[in-house]
Every structure is written in C-alpha cells, then in structure tokens.
Amino acid sequence: MPLAIFDLDNTLLRGDSDYAWGQFLIENRIVDGVAYERENHRYYAQYRAGTLDIMEFLAFALRPLVAHDRATLDRWRQQYMQTKVRPMITPQARALVEKHRRRGDTLVIVSATNRFVTGPIAQEFNVPNLIATEPETSGGRFTGKVAGTPCFREGKVIRLKNWAQEHGLSLQGSWGYSDSHNDLPLLFQVEHPIAVNPDDILRREAQKRGWEILSLG
Description:
Elements: E1 3-6, H1 8-12, H2 17-27, H3 33-49, H4 54-66, H5 70-85, H6 91-103, E2 106-114, H7 115-124, E3 129-138, E4 141-147, H8 154-166, E5 175-178, H9 184-187, E6 192-196, H10 200-209, E7 212-214
Parallel strand pairs: 1-2, 1-5, 2-3, 5-6, 6-7
Antiparallel strand pairs: 3-4
Helix pairs in contact: 2-3, 2-5
C-alpha cells in the first residue's frame, strides 16, 4: 500500500496549529500576552522565511508545557481543538484524506509541530500514523526538551524513513502534500509530490518541476 504523507500546518489545516496554540495561550492569559505574541510572530516569520532555528523555537514553544500539570494541559487542549483547530479544517482537506483512505493507502501525517498539539488533530482526521516532534517527558510532566530528532526539514526525512523501515514500508508509489518550501527535502523523496496552497518558493519549485499544485480552500 503506497504511503499518503501529509504535512499538517497550512496543508490539511487552513492555518498553523503551533501558532494557533500560542494564540490560545495568549487569549486565555496562560502566558504573558505581549511578550509571547511578539516571539510567536517572530518565530512564525522565520519559519516562513526558511531561517528558523528549530531548537531555539522548540525551547520557546515547549516552555508553557513545563509550567502546568498534564490534566490542566489536556483540558486546555480540548478547548483549543474546539475553538482553534476545527474551524481550520476544510471539507476539501477531509475529502483529500478520505480519497487516499478509500484507495487503501497508508495515511501518515508528518509535522514539525509537537505531538502534544498534533495528536488530537491526527485523531480528528482519523489518520492512525503521526510522525511529529516529540516533547520529552519525565514523571508524567513535560521537561521542555525534545526527545530525538525534531521533525523539521531534513529531520522529517530522517524520521519518516526510520518509521517506514520499522513498519516494513517503502516510499515506492508514495504521495506527499505540503504548503511549505521547508518541506522540499521531504517532497523530493516521494514519487508524487503535490504543492498545497504553496508559498512563493514552493510554488516556483513546483512549476519548474511540473508538480501538481492543489488548493484545499
């Protein structure tokens, strides 16, 4: 069964789940609003420009998880899913996932955003396989550190290939969907790369290489 590999933010979602989680924290006064929003904007701009230092960003993004117990975080995450994430899911995105499911493809979401944020989103799409940045835990609490390789740029390729090998799968016949030039290393690995609502750099690359360009609303 071929793999159908989906980026999450601005691909299956009409927005960025990591950024939206930060906005949720700000709006609910869980973090210092002015300072956190300034940094959230700064890192998001760096991501879009392709200049993001992923370890620096993750130190920032995972910090709020450290300060609170898991039950509180889980309650906030439920609210975040309802108010922020579900409105970002378009019928077109759901239909794309279902098209590959009907074909019998193996569905995989590969996201740089950490698993705490993305786990319920993969469940919302009923995608059983999620490869995401793993936040480290100790004694049932988050430490603020990253476990293993961050799932970003070339790290997505490393994580995907390791996962495929563990499951006895290959990239033969695979499909890959992303909006971002940061995912070019991943898109170069699949047989059917598709640019979804692409940024300018990815759009130019897709046009040059004759890749399909798709809009999901």
